[in-house]
Every structure is written in structure tokens, then in C-alpha cells.
């Protein structure tokens, strides 16, 4: 944990509170079950980087990065994509519970048949002329985001014999600090493919895995139009300053 | 304070190109802007092969060492025409390029830090991003006094964070594993 230097030892210093470190949450970079990690993980242990101004800041991206219909993956083509129409929504918060407002959320996914519109994806499932599979949204003042899309299909890959990825949507978030940057995947409840998926199982703590799981949200469905899933995302929060910690203890005693 | 556990990271996978690259991603500053420099490099895996499905992102201070961000206690200050953030996928040769301005000195908790750029690397086969820092070769005195560089004992390892000079900017290769492995940070 960073500590504030006393003024005498650092006359020109500028101390800023950092962000909590959340190693327990994340998968290891070396995960033999996911074969491609073998040549793509550093061998040297990482060097601790204190959080300075560069790490507690991030690009403040404006609404101009997002078009009016970018949150709706079913639009922008001559017709509607095949598949089950769904609403995916949720709130982005930090680990202190504060909403993360006005931050960019980017998503990409396979179509309903499990095929990506990508030159590298050649498995024999159909492309959908009405689906590209990319979306963008800014969170609102309460950190909420909302996408309209179709439920992605599962797809095979060559990691192990008869390997299939559970249905998922790729998510990318900026947060308000370099330390908060997160790229992850959202999964659907009751997927039968988790048992053999090294990505899902790379997260060591089973409770942390569950945090990648959306829940069916009947209240957010639109009758005769779309089913809905809710997925809340938690980014790292700010370290408490010693002063604030003291306050917390007092509050807890009340 | 309630503490909410964070959401785990997952790999960008092989199809990151659908969702992440921006047409203007490599341009933290417009081409032809005064002081614009290219940072170019290649990402290599543990077999020394170029990594063709990676994404490099950069974040940095402006030439005066300032950030356009409300959490900078000195105040947010924008540098017109400068985004301070760059994003570029690697190509078929494993190469990336970001056009930016050289950052100024940034204060740290124990005095000034040498000019630096924070770099995130995402790729298929990486379950989480890795983070490194780019320092500038002409800043010998500032680099020698930089607390982060000095926290790395091995001079060969430290040298992986110092870019090379190039005719129109700098060269910064990233070696994920093995010989000349780049220093990565626990951020
Ligand atoms: Fe995927």
C-alpha cells in the first residue's frame, strides 16, 4: 500500500492516493489449460508500480466517440439479424461502491450462429449479412449502460479436442484511471460449456468466475420484443487515504 | 465502506479487431502537428515470433507534464489537439505505431519522474493485459534519477524500458517472454 511521504523527505513530491490492487480476482497469465498462454506470459515477476499521476488518470472520452445507434447491434444494416434479440444492461461501479459515470464501454461478439465477422474465423457456420457484432456506449451519470443485440452462439476452437467457447460478449472498459482499464467477457447463466472452457476456469476463485455471469432480468425485458440480461461490472476503487480510513472507523462505531 | 469484489479480466481473443481498433486510434495527435513523433515497435512472443493479434495502448502526460483529468490535484488542463491516448492493433508483421507528443516531466511521490508513457498490451493468449512503461533515450540524467527505473535492479532489464531513437521518433519493441523480456509492472 502506498504511504504518504513526510514533507521533509520529499520537498518536491506529489503524493496521490492510488487504487486498490485486486490480484485475487484475475486469471494468471500462465494458464496451461489455455495453450496460447505458453509463449505469451512473462517469466519475470512483475515490478511493483506505485500509482502516480499517470496511473490515476485516463482519457476522458466524450460522447463524440459514440454514435446515436452504436449501442444497438441489431441496427445499421438493411435488415434485422437472425437470432434471439436481447437487451444487455447493467451498472459500472468501483470496488468502493461508487458509480463510474460517463465512461466508454465497447463490446464485440459472434452472431447467433457463433460466427465472427473476421477473416480469421472460418468455421462452417453462416455469417449474417445483417450483423457486424460491434457496439459502443457511454455509461450515464449513474454508471449505467445498455446494449441491444442478439444472443451470441457458442463456437468451436482448437485449444483441445472438441473445444467450444461458452456463449459470451467481449467487453472493454476504460474507467476513470489507467489502473481501472478492463477487458473481459460476459457469460450467460446455465451455459453447459463452462466445465471445459479454460478461459472461464482460468479465474482461480469460483466466486470471482460468477462475477462474469449475467443474470436473466425479466423486469428489463420488452414484451413481445426482447429478453434481457443484467450484468454489473466492478472496477478497482481508490485506496482510502489514512484520514478517510479514520473516519470510516468512527462511522462503523456509530 | 462496503467493498465490492472486482470483475475478472479475460483475454481479448483472436477477434479483437472487430471491437477495439479506432480509425483515429494511432493518432494521439494529428499528423503534421509540431513536435509529433512516431513510436513504432514490434511485439514478440516467447519463441521470438511477431505477435499479430495484439493491441497496444498508450497513456501519458502532455509536453508540460499535465493531464486533462479532474483527479490531477494540479487541475485538469487540456492541450489542444492532443488526446494523450493512443491505440493500435499489431499488423501481420507484429508491428504497431502511435503518433504522439513527447510527454513532460511528471511529479511523483518522491520527486520528479522522467518523461514516460504508460503502455498496456492486450493479445490473444493473454488472459489479462500487461503493463509496461516507455522512457526516452535522450533523457539520461532524468532516467538515472527516476524512482521507477531505479526500482529495477538489473540494468539489462531496466534497459528494456528505454526506447531507441528512430528518424521520425522512437522505437519500442515489446518482448513478452524470454531473451530480452520487457519489464512489466504490477499496476
Ligand atoms: Fe470470443
From TrEMBL, chain A:
Alphabetic keyword roster: Dioxygenase, Oxidoreductase
InterPro entries to which the protein is assigned, alphabetical: Intradiol_dOase_C, Intradiol_dOase_core, Intradiol_RC_Dioxygenase, PCDO_beta_N, Protocat_dOase_b
Keyword Oxidoreductase recorded: yes
Record GO terms (molecular function): protocatechuate 3,4-dioxygenase activity
Residue ranges constituting the Intradiol ring-cleavage dioxygenases domain according to the UniProt record: 88-116
UniProt cross-references to Gene3D superfamilies, sorted A to Z: Aromatic compound dioxygenase (2.60.130.10)
Enzyme Commission number, as recorded: 1.13.11.3
Composition-biased stretches (Basic and acidic residues): 20-33
Record-stated family: Belongs to the intradiol ring-cleavage dioxygenase family.
Name listed for the protein in its UniProt record: Protocatechuate 3,4-dioxygenase subunit beta
Source species of the chain: Streptomonospora nanhaiensis
Upper taxonomic lineage: Bacteria, Bacillati, Actinomycetota, Actinomycetes, Streptosporangiales
From TrEMBL, chain B:
Domain Intradiol ring-cleavage dioxygenases: 37-177
Listed InterPro entries: Intradiol_dOase_C, Intradiol_dOase_core, Intradiol_RC_Dioxygenase, Protocat_dOase_a
UniProt KW keywords: Dioxygenase, Oxidoreductase
Superkingdom to which the source organism belongs: Bacteria
GO molecular function terms noted in the UniProt entry: protocatechuate 3,4-dioxygenase activity
PANTHER family for this protein: DIOXYGENASE, PUTATIVE (AFU_ORTHOLOGUE AFUA_2G02910)-RELATED (PTHR33711), PROTOCATECHUATE 3,4-DIOXYGENASE ALPHA CHAIN (PTHR33711:SF9)
NCBIfam families: protocat_alph
Family, per entry: Belongs to the intradiol ring-cleavage dioxygenase family.
Annotated protein name in UniProt: Protocatechuate 3,4-dioxygenase subunit alpha
